[in-house]
Automatic annotation (TrEMBL):
Principal cellular location given in the protein's record: other
High-level lineage: Eukaryota, Metazoa, Chordata, Craniata, Vertebrata
The protein's name in its UniProt record: Ig-like domain-containing protein
One BP annotation, GO: leukocyte cell-cell adhesion
Entry's family note: Belongs to the immunoglobulin superfamily.
Subcellular location: Cell junction, Tight junction; Cell membrane
Amino acid sequence: MAGNIAMVVSVMTDNKKVEATEFDEAVLSCVYSLQRNSKYRLEWKKIERGGGDVSFVYYEGDIVGSLKGRAEMFDSSIRIKNVTRKDSAMYRCEVTTAAGYVEEVEVELTVLVLPATPLCDIPRNVMTGTVVELKCREKEGFPASQYDWFKDGERLQVQAQNAKVKTSPGSYTININSGTLQFNTVAKTDTGEYYCEAYNRVGRSQKCLAKKMQVDDLNVGGIVAAAVVVSLVIALCGLGVYHAHKKGYFSRGHTSQKSRSVYKPAPSTQNEFKHTKSFVI
């Protein structure tokens, strides 16, 4: 059956994988040939990625669905104007003959998206010798963005193609995929104004809001002095409690009271002994 179908109709494309930058134009090509002068039906369908929904794009001689008003047919191909990221999908060109023979070809459209302006998380004040991490992230770009960091307008260098690279050993580490800039032991020389940029093969984004990171020395003397003061306060409080206890301020009473016994007369009995006249005159 497959051999008979191939002899009746054939369908092919000039490009099975089409890439276009968002808001530009994309062409989905479809070329067919019929060996006999017979009637046929041409249809285009959109298949969402991941085995999703199937919908018509070209049906009964008209552009339909989400491409209506943004696309046009020329011959059996489709020209999409002003593509968006939602147009990324698999498209199928189908030719069906009057006898019911069907041939098809699929074209994958990938819309490339420029990165958006990233968001940066940059601390303002840190202490020398501590671990400090600066973060940069954006979620719009396709393919996924990578990141460059800048200090005082100068790009911080990375020395290899790996995602995680150390430059100036012991100074900082840049992960170009996650967008983090980490100082394992930050120094006063790392004080400066920082910002990052996201980029992919479409282009670069605008830089994030630049912020100054101030690195100050850890005041060891002040910490020791504060610890001594706290210790003295605790010691004085303990001494005060000890003397108060010796003075008896924490006893339940200053004088002991002797228990007093209360005399209670015995209750009188109701049946008292009564004298009766026992003499007989």
